Amino acid sequence: MAIAMEEKIEAIYQQVKARNPGEDEFHQAVKEVLESLGPVLVKFPEFAEQKIIERICEPERQIMFRVPWQDDRGEVHINRGFRVQFNSAIGPYKGGLRFHPSVYLGIIKFLGFEQTFKNALTGMPIGGGKGGSDFDPKGKSNNEIMRFCQSYMTELYRHLGEYTDCPAGDIGVGGREIGYLFGQYKRITNRYESGVLTGKGIGWGGSLVRTEATGYGAVYFVREMLKVRKQSLEGKTCVVSGSGNVAIYTIEKLQQLGAKVIACSDSNGVIIHEKGIDLQMLKKLKEVERRRLADYATYHKDARYIAEGNIWEIPCQVAMPSATQNELNGKDAKMLVKNGCIAVGEGANMPTTPEGVHVFLHAKIAYGPGKAANAGGVATSALEMQQNASRDSWSFEYTEQKLDQIMTGIHQATYETAEEFGAPDNYVIGANVAGFIKVAQAMVPMGLI
Ligand code: NDP
Ligand code: 2IT
Predict the structure, then answer these.
(1) Which ranges of 229-348 would DSSP assign to H, the alpha helix?
(2) In this structure, which CATH number among 3.40.50.150, 3.40.50.720, 3.40.50.1820, 3.20.20.150 belongs to the domain 213-373?
């Protein structure tokens, strides 16, 4: 029975590959989830009868559009905008927008697919979606960013709504961009519809803790994984890749819990600071002045900057990839394990290649995959929507406590699901299976949708 199921799932995967040619990251994300699902179809035969896997792999709607804008010199540029509305079985589409030159349909689809299961794991009523553009925000002025965001929203607004689709930030989209996007949405629709975007400013419908949430949440997940192993973060040496929103607040929470973060990175290089990363300096450089990480070494003479360096070569006990997809490969994973790494928590989406994941699982270190470990960001977005709906605003302490409870709950659910499905300690199986079952069980009673 189980072998027949595996063959059936492999056939579905081959079909997904054939009908979505060239979308490598989407294929990778689908394969990883489908490989976990054999025992689920055995336990729930109605999922196979109702072709739930085939339906879940096909987005409900995909939107691609032209985004024309003018730079400060008056030159016209054309970018491509995307929004993939993947699955709305348990709530309105919800997921970030990514502005990065590498963006194409295959990236947005992998992110939207992952988001569907991640959002289900949070226990909140949110479906899965993702969007973005191949626009490169690096080196652009505030006015250029504003004009781009206004043009992008001028098309996207017609597909959004607090009960339809609610974007937020991701790579290249933070508080500044959400402000311009919200302003344009409000202006076009003549509606103050707070819940349509999350990651808003505190004075206009935003939630405390949303900025910190993804990083804090990822650290809570690692804390829980270590707790099972009768360990803690206290005194552990950590490296965190990236130096954007997720990386910064991962470093902050690691430091608060007594760990020592000795390295972070950007797409140009790595900073190693054995004394511990100076978080105030990092925030000033990245959040306020929007400068490159290399400049950190000009302020701290005892820190080393390695251009094009590989952060995973630095010996550490805890590694938290928090930059981008496929940033940690099989060779990197072997090096981390060899150097004594005991836990990996993914702040980024799909940062570890399939070979890397195999190494971590085989070595039996604590490995928390992105769709479980980084769910704190979108969970806090859902808390923001909850506050918007009740026209309320909660304190930092209360909201952070809710985030902690949600992450602890996700850890417990993924841990228990892995055990139930015969793969103890395997959070990949736990997250894929628990997320899939939640979405599938909502789809079946709704009929052929
Ligand atoms: P930011 O734009 O704030 O920061 C991104 C960081 O990653 C920067 O340091 C950037 O370096 C680096 N980076 C981006 N692309 C690449 C690349 N191709 N190669 C090497 N480094 C790269 O984004 P976030 O911190 O918000 O997002 C980081 C990751 O976390 C992403 O995978 C995102 O999908 C995921 N995530 C984000 C959530 C959120 O709430 N923001 C929620 C859940 C997951 P540089 O400046 O040189 O480009
Ligand atoms: O990948 C993610 O979960 C995000 N970028 C956050 C999505 C959200 O809606 O807050």
Answers:
(1) 245-256, 279-283, 296-299, 330-338
(2) 3.40.50.720
